[in-house]
Amino acid sequence: MAYGFDTLQIHAGARPDPATGARQTPIYQTTAYVFRDADHAAALFNLQEVGYIYSRLTNPTVSVLQERVATLEGGAGAVCCSSGHAAQIMALFPLMSPGCNVVVSTRLYGGSITQFSHTIKRFGWSAKFVDFDNLAAIEAAIDPGTRAIFCETIANPGGYITDLDAVAAIADKAGLPLIVDNTSATPYLCRPIEHGATLVVHSMTKFLTGNGTVTGGVVVDSGKFDWSASGKFPSLSNPEPAYHGLKFHETFGPLAFTFHGIAIGLRDLGMTLNPQAAHYTLMGIETLSLRMARHVENAVRVATWLESHPAVAAVTYAGLPSSPWHDRMARICPKGAGSLFTITLKGGYDACLRLVDNLELFSHVANLGDTRSLVIHSASTTHRQLTPEQQSAAGAAPNVVRFSIGIEDAEDIIADLEQALAKIGG
Ligand SMILES: *Cc1c(COP(=O)(O)O)cnc(C)c1O
Prior knowledge:
- This protein is 37% helix and 14% strand.
- The protein is α/β, with parallel strands linked by helices.
- The strands form 3 sheets. Strands 1-9-8-7-4-2-3 form a 7-stranded mixed sheet, sandwiched between helices. Strands 10-11-14-13-12 form a 5-stranded mixed sheet.
- The protein is globular, with a radius of gyration of 22 Å.
- Bound molecules: pyridoxal-5'-phosphate.
- Pyridoxal-5'-phosphate binds at residues 83-85, 109, 111-112, 152, 156, 181, 183-184, 203, 205-206, 215, 217, 368.
């Protein structure tokens, strides 16, 4: 029987605890698991039998979360890890080797731009930044060293929506996996695999947990990519020396990426999610659809109100009919464009800082996707390390303030903005 999203967000992956009948998934706060006997231990270490060895690799609480997110995204499997940034490295790690590159959108979370433009170079990898509305430029950027294409569904901070179907068609033609960061949309608003994504990554720190209590990430595999077709992904298609010559794709088929992520990625990179964090995220996901619907409803009301305010020059929210990306919403995320957007203030940089300082209900934090309404001036914080050109391309120019609209009463959110905007002067 095929359950609906609201049922799956509560039940997928979970079952009453076999030992105690506990209805809620227990927090298995254990490092290791007792082997039945020496043969059992050997089979587990050879990947001939699936089971628990050591919590850097697998943990029963984390496993429930993996199955839950994989189900909600329509994927074959998932690997949780310690943060959204860890998930991005875990997604690229099996695909890349020194000298390889990834073609990425210029419109990304600020930390991702930094990770891709600086830190991955230490591994000998590189990123080619392209405007993903220019499909010809994406195709032109792909070269023999390209191993993946990376973008966000709804790009933080601007509320820009990527034409996932068009980008997936380019990836397909080039025989490359498309990796989509679905943090801002969540599987409630968009399921990138249905639009052709190979892998979906999340910062579970944001809407999936939903209340600012956890740092976590996940990589979901569609199970649909043929890792052996091109010879470009030897980690997945060729014999693995650290597992007696096991070939992940041949052995595990659609679960090859997931098994590799656990058996090589978590084993050797160690970016593991802890069971306590998995518990909080499971709690959050139980109400994901309810929260996202309310986030969207509030964001539409607040963005509409802001658009008519005399101090505001522009609102980027794709949920507004005035947005250049509004038409894409109907195709990519028909239930709404999320709750992240920016406004441009006529008063410029100084007015932005005064607005941030005068808001009372909003919290001034470097975070998003909380039940609380949050605000940040990206250019002086999260996007501070970027050049002015990168800031503008990412939608974080100096005269721009970003909001993550929470699920409080919309009247209260608007009243707070009204009093703070009255104090910015100019
Ligand atoms: C926050 C965020 C990340 C990074 O996630 P962490 O959990 O903070 O490491 C990546 N992508 C997007 C879109 C984000 O919002």
